[in-house]
Write a structure and sequence with these properties.
This protein has helices at about 35-45, 60-65, 75-85, 90-105, 115-145, 160-170, 175-200, 210-215, 220-230, 240-245, 270-285, 290-300, 305-325, and strands spanning about 1-10, 10-20, 25-30, 50-55, 70-75, 250-255, 260-265. The protein is α/β, with parallel strands linked by helices. β2 and β3 (about 25-30) form a beta hairpin.
Length: about 375
């Protein structure tokens, strides 16, 4: 067996090969082209196993390895740094260290998402980025309201045409032009979010657990898809504690010398699961009395910020046990909380205001 340590960058990579006993066989510096990798594999010959750090550019390499039946291990970058610190750090040193750790079976592996689940995950993350940009546009428009003391209509973003007319009557010409451009951006982002959502709906038949976890209070379409895409195989979590920790819903700890310190806002884990369960907690507290009672109990004792996180943690535990035990939803903290049947996408804009929103694609329907 030949073990390959790959130090991958955006345009090139350094590859080091070692034998089963850790002896260095060779080292190559290649550009990120599959034909060069194919030539290298033919030169090495024999069974091969490779490792690469979990950076933002590993997707294409994983697809290449899968198509060539080469086992590729994805190394957890933060944990790898903890066990393989080196004073001298170069591409050659990193690649050689990765190969040696792989040969010794000491690589801290990260979860590798492939195939349909990875495509769904990318779509959901792209949708979230679009929503964040849309929120920034909303903030810019609200700043114009406040700057010129313009009366804010009720639900201003429900009808963008009416909002544009309202601002043009109350703002000076320069700011009115700015507002019109911001509203055009809002229309474009709404159209892009809509297109992503239509694409996401096509994955439903491939994820049978979707209908099950969508019965949990506060978990709608977006949250259901995000949770399924980000979790992957639920069996990789040994317990519900491991799962809620991965969701960033429990604080870290730095206990030493008899002193206990909590580390809130710890970045270990999956930020997208934290967003999904935090949003689900807001919906559950808002519309389900048993969840609201539990939230109020925690809030009186520990404050609202802790209470929101505790509710999100309980929802995550419910999802974990439903998936790991293959069980239906049974209730929240022993109390029945039947799910609202309205499970539509949470749109903030009237479909009528989006007519002509994507002039490049006139085939899009007006209704969302």
């Amino acid at each position: 067996m030949t073990y390959l340590g790959i130090d991958l960058h955006t345009r090139n990579m350094t590859i080091c090969a070692v034998s089963s006993n850790g002896k260095k066989i060779g080292e190559w510096k290649l550009t990120n082209q599959t034909d060069q990798l194919d030539a290298l594999i033919r030169e090495i010959s024999g069974p091969t196993k490779a490792v690469v750090e979990a950076t933002s550019s590993w997707y294409w390499l994983a697809d290449w390895a899968e198509s060539r039946d080469i086992e590729l291990v994805l190394a957890h970058a933060k944990m790898l740094k903890a066990i393989a610190y080196a004073k001298v750090k170069t591409d050659s040193v990193d690649a050689h260290r990765l190969a040696q750790l792989l040969a010794a079976d000491l690589i801290p592996a990260a979860h590798m998402v492939m195939g349909t689940r990875r495509e769904l995950r990318e779509l959901l993350r792209a949708r979230l980025r679009m929503v964040w940009r849309r929120c920034k546009v909303q903030d810019s428009l609200y700043n114009l309201f406040f700057k010129y003391n313009v009366p804010i209509p009720k639900y201003p973003f429900r009808d963008l045409n009416r909002l544009e007319e309202h601002l043009s009557r109350h703002l000076p010409p320069a700011s009115s032009l700015e507002a019109s451009l911001q509203i055009d951006q809002f229309r474009l982002l709404e159209a892009q979010v809509y297109r992503i959502e239509k694409q996401i709906d096509g994955f439903r038949s491939e994820f049978p657990n979707y209908d099950r976890i969508s019965q949990v209070p506060g978990i709608g379409k977006v949250s259901s898809w995000s949770i399924l895409a980000e979790i992957g195989d639920i069996s990789r979590f040994k317990s519900d504690k491991n799962f809620v920790s991965y969701c960033r819903l429990v604080p870290g700890a730095a206990d030493s010398g008899g002193k206990r310190r909590h580390k809130s806002r710890n970045k270990d884990g999956n930020k997208y699961l934290k967003v999904a369960f935090s949003q689900a907690a807001i919906g559950a507290v808002s519309f389900y009395p048993p969840v609201r009672q539990f939230y109020n109990k925690i809030r009186r004792r520990s404050g609202k910020h802790v209470a929101w996180t505790v509710v999100a943690k309980e929802l995550a535990r419910i999802v974990y046990f439903m998936l790991s035990r293959n069980e239906p939803y049974k209730g929240f903290k022993g109390k029945e909380t039947p799910k609202d049947t309205y499970l539509n996408w949470p749109h903030s804009v009237s479909p009528r205001s989006l007519r002509g929103r994507d002039r490049a694609d006139p085939s899009q329907p007006d209704a969302i």
